[in-house]
Structures are given as structure tokens and as C-alpha cells.
């Protein structure tokens, strides 16, 4: 299928645009919620380090996770800036992404690239000062997402796997930062959950762009809503089953299997997200769904809270 070549000329600057606000928008602070994955290891190992008389250890681990979160926000924002500079011509064809600061002309590509270099350098140096192992994880994440921006995002199926691996690296970075082992089940759940979100995102893009999907990104022509629904139909039960098995087989969890009480929160969250994707055409921006849908946000908060309480109460 032939598509019309896309012009690569820069968008003229937007009159009266505030460059500072434009830069803040280009950093995509709402997408920093994805970096919350670094706290998973902290939450699911709370029974190994927390006690009422030893809050100093817990506080130190929390600070290390917060620092790791900040480092991933910096490297992720650097990747977003580079990606938006590269994709600006295609973004101008998208009904929503054309409003991005670089695509709209509110932010200079040169400024964006300079800020990206500063953020990436600060993230790598900061992570190395915390731990060389953490720096290695951050570097692998940066290289992988750079490859994604410059080509892998256009390779059908592989594109969603790269997104999923990005979540796994975030979770792994949190474990490295506080020096605790994480159950392989948790990594498996992270992969499957991230694949679920990535496939839902592709489906939402197809629904939104319809016949113009190929003009925005070539590999979207390779997907169909029916194919994506089948993939989601495989990944969704796999994720739920994997999490369910994790709650009563992981060695680090309570031996009385009390973590099974968190399964309903996961089920509700998955069903709620599917409902939003299929009935309200949401899913193109998971972070937007998280902030806009209170039932989904409530399920996530309750899942984290109940998980932490179970782990603290039952240590056997």
C-alpha cells in the first residue's frame, strides 16, 4: 500500500507560546506514573525489612526508591524529547499528538535535544553514584528505548514487547536500588500486564486513526482490531493466572496464602480497563485513563494498600 510522503519541514514557532511551559509539557510528567514500577520491589518485600522499631531502615529504602523514581523520570523524559523531535512530522498528522509542544512549534527541537542530553547525563551519573548495577539497568533501558524510537516502534509485535520490557526494567531497577531479590513470578506478571496495556494502546490508536493509521506509523497497517483483540484475549487471562499463582507460590510471601485476598482488586482493574477500552475508546494513553477514571485508580490504591498490610501482618 502506497502512502503519501510526509513533509519533514519544521513547524513555525507558535506566537506567544511560553517556552518553559512548553518544555514542561514535552517532558510528559503524567507519564512518570509508569516509573512507579520501581516501588514494586519495596512494597512486595516490606515483610522482609519493616518493623515498628526499625523504621530507619524502611525510610532509607524508601528514599532510595524515590531517588530511583526520579532518575527514571529524567531518562524517560529525555527519551520522550528525542522521540518527539524525530516523530514531529508524523505527530502533526495525529488528531491528538499534533498538539505536542515540538510538533506544534511551541518548543524548539534544538532546545529539546539539549535538555534531553542534560537529563540523560544526570540520570546515568546519578544512578552510577547510587550503584553501578543500577546504572547498568538505566543504561540498558536508555539504549533499548532509543532503539525503539529509531526503529523498533515500527516493527509489528516486537514494538509491544519492547514496551513491556521497559516496565520490567523499571521493576528490576527498584529491586537493585534496595538490594532485594524479586520473585520471577513478579517479573512475569509485569511483562504480561505491560503487554496488556501496550496491545490496548495499539487498539485505541487504530480506532482513533482508522484508515489514516498507516500514514502515522507504518506498522499500524499490520495490526487489525480483530488481531489485537485475540492477542489481548491471550495476554489478559495469562496475566491474571500468573498473578494468582504468584500470590500462593512465591517463597517471599506469607505461607498462609493471605496475599490471595488481593486477586479481586487485580481482576476488577483488568475488567475495568477492558470496559474503558471497548466502550469509551480509551486506552491510547494509559496515564490519562489512570488519572481520569476514579474506580480504576481506587482499585490500584486498594491493591497496593491491602498488599502492604497483608505482608506486614503475616510474615510467616
Put the structure in a nutshell.
This protein has helices at residues 19-26, 40-43, 46-49, 55-91, 101-104, 109-130, 132-149, 158-178, 184-209, 213-216, 225-249, 263-279, 286-292, 294-313. The protein has 316 residues and is mostly helical.
Provide the succession of SSEs: HHHHHHHHHHHHHH
Return the average pLDDT rounded to an integer: 84
Main sheet overview: none
Strands, total number: 0
For the record, give the distance between the C-alpha atoms at the N and C termini, rounded to a whole number: 61 Å
Provide the β-strand percentage band: under 5%
Helix content bin: 55-70%
* Number of DSSP helical runs: 14
Assign the structural class, choosing from mainly alpha, mainly beta, alpha/beta, alpha+beta, or little secondary structure: mainly alpha
- Unreliable segments (pLDDT under 50, ≥5 consecutive)? 1-9
Radius of gyration: 20 Å
Give the overall silhouette: globular
Amino acid at each position: 500500500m502506497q502512502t503519501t510522503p510526509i513533509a519533514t519541514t519544521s513547524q513555525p514557532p507558535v506566537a506567544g507560546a511560553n517556552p518553559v511551559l512548553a518544555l514542561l509539557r514535552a517532558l510528559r510528567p503524567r507519564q512518570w506514573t509508569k516509573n512507579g514500577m520501581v516501588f514494586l520491589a519495596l512494597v512486595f518485600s516490606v515483610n522482609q525489612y519493616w518493623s515498628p522499631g526499625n523504621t530507619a531502615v524502611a525510610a532509607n529504602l524508601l528514599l532510595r526508591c524515590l531517588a530511583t523514581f526520579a532518575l527514571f523520570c529524567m531518562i524517560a523524559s529525555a527519551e520522550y524529547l528525542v522521540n518527539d523531535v524525530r516523530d514531529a512530522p508524523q505527530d502533526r498528522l495525529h488528531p491528538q499528538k499534533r498538539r505536542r509542544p515540538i510538533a506544534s512549534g511551541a518548543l524548539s527541537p534544538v532546545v529539546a535535544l539539549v535538555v534531553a542530553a542534560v537529563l540523560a547525563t544526570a540520570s546515568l551519573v546519578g544512578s552510577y553514584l547510587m550503584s553501578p548495577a543500577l546504572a547498568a539497568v538505566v543504561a540498558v533501558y536508555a539504549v533499548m528505548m532509543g532503539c525503539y524510537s529509531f526503529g523498533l516502534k515500527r516493527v509489528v509485535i516486537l514494538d509491544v514487547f519492547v514496551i513491556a520490557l521497559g516496565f520490567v526494567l523499571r521493576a528490576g531497577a527498584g529491586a537493585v536500588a534496595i538490594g532485594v531479590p524479586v520473585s520471577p513470578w513478579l517479573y512475569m506478571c509485569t511483562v504480561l500486564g505491560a503487554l496488556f496495556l501496550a496491545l490496548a494502546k495499539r487498539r485505541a490508536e487504530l480506532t482513533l486513526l482508522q484508515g489514516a493509521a498507516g500514514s502515522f506509523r507504518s506498522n499500524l497497517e499490520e495490526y487489525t482490531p480483530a488481531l489485537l483483540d485475540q492477542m489481548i484475549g491471550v495476554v489478559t487471562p495469562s496475566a491474571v493466572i500468573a498473578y494468582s499463582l504468584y500470590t500462593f507460590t512465591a517463597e517471599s510471601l506469607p505461607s498462609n496464602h493471605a496475599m490471595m485476598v488481593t486477586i479481586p482488586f487485580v481482576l476488577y482493574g483488568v475488567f475495568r480497563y477492558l470496559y474503558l477500552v471497548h466502550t469509551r475508546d480509551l486506552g491510547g494513553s494509559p496515564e490519562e485513563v489512570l488519572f481520569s477514571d476514579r474506580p480504576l485508580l481506587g482499585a490500584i490504591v486498594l491493591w497496593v494498600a491491602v498488599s502492604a498490610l497483608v505482608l506486614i501482618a503475616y510474615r510467616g
